[in-house]
Amino acid sequence: MGNLLKSELFKLRKDRSLRTLIIIIMASAIFYPTLIFFDNGADSATVNDFYSGTGLSGNDYIVKLVPCILAGFFISSEYSIGTMKSIGASGNNRIRIYFAKLMAFSIGAVIISLVFPIIILAASTILFGTNDLPALDYFIQTMGLTILYAAAFSSIMSLFSIIFTDSGKTIGFLIIFFLLSDSILYVLSQKFSLIETIFNYSVFKLFLDISKVDLSNGAFLKILLVPIITWIVFGLVGSFIFQKKEIK
């Protein structure tokens, strides 16, 4: 398992799509506060506004959509170029192969999820000063939960990546899926009590609450455990499908 994970992490470091996505996100995070600074001046906003508002709310789309592109190139493309067949024929257990790839991909998704809020925090601090910085415990809480939810979403992306085994189909489906999933689940939850319960305990809904400071102990426990359980469940389902899948 250790050698498999090292191999996947090496491929992740060399993945051009990951580097390109990170550069684009960093440029966006720097450009936005810079534009506000030169248009409206240093007194037009605070660092906390940029972090809790733009940094976290804007990161919602980044966490759900940008890793979809990485999934297509990092996982699905290995079927078309024959890499997955070689790995499968290496004698390693398929469950270990899948979880090694899932863990490496989850790390890539986590890196993507942290870039925008951290860079926008740093850029806005340089431009607008250190007044009204977000509290340290709030920063740690939001970044820690962002890591968990990015990993949870990556487990869902990995599952569909091995089902489609084509980078184009995977990227297209995942982007549409994550764009529409919140709305579809919300509409269905208004009509079916079972769907409402599932939606209320899903990563899709709870991810929107990570920026809330005044979470009760019960609410915080729920928002903490759901992404962990989601990663494990979808990881097990994905490994089962991968174990039964014919690799051509």
From TrEMBL:
This is ABC transporter permease. Keywords: Membrane, Transmembrane, Transmembrane helix. It comes from the Bacteria. It holds the Pfam family ABC2_membrane_4. The chain crosses the membrane at residues 21-41, 61-81, 102-126, 138-164, 171-189, 219-242.
